[in-house]
């Protein structure tokens, strides 16, 4: 039975400009990998899902996590931290995890249970640097037998050479172009949120693509009328699973989520804006966090009962992150007048504060 999303999000009227938290858990994500300096995954799968680096030939199992450039939390997988020689056009360090010729990959230890034409949603933050300037295909997640035909796999990919997000299903593709009512360049070295939704029994042309919270175009696919027919197999992050399509250029992946139902447009926007908590997250208690002043002219002070150093992110009303810092305050003096969402994290406690900048 499909799990119902939690709908009881608590919002505060803009007119009150109150400091408050969003009292909601992430809507039972089937899988959530945050890459917080590890591959730990939370899941609603009854048997659990864990990930590991498979390295059968002992080629080297290096994964680089970067604390300087995460999109969510404190770390992200970083494929740009490998030493790269611009003159030779080659990586010069231990690159087996991204080397197309190496049999090293990030893979689940058990099979998934989203099969056939079951509903699903994939969502993640991705960053693509295109260090070599060669474009190419850069897999985010593969579900199903990587060698399967007849729609037996779901290979979710940034197809940089074609300027699109692609879902290869084995025997055909369906594509979401880089246009969302304007031009969105995913190859600019910045973090972008990508997602797609697929409902029970839909045809491939019914898939809805999202880039940075906005719907993008669907080209209808090369197998019109066909549906997913996903096989029972392992999940692979950053590679197709047969070592022929990897993130061989620079970039990163953060906050990877899979749901076993098709999320609504509103729910995708909430994930993009950082308003949904993860399964492990809880809201601050009513008296555990104070933020002042509101409205703010320059510095917003944030105090918790534990008096800890906080991870602080500031988003404008479009969902764009405009400040990311750590501490007990955030300098908003350079921001234009308007309403902002300030996301505060202390371990697994999260608050989304509605703050007016004068």
From TrEMBL:
SUPFAM superfamilies: Concanavalin A-like lectins/glucanases. Residues 1-24 form the signal peptide. It comes from the Bacteria. Keywords: Disulfide bond, Signal. InterPro entries: ConA-like_dom_sf, LamG-like, Secre_tail. Residues 118-266 form the LamG-like jellyroll fold domain. One of its GO terms (biological process) is carbohydrate metabolic process. Pfam families: Laminin_G_3, Por_Secre_tail. GO terms for molecular function: hydrolase activity, hydrolyzing O-glycosyl compounds. This is LamG-like jellyroll fold domain-containing protein.
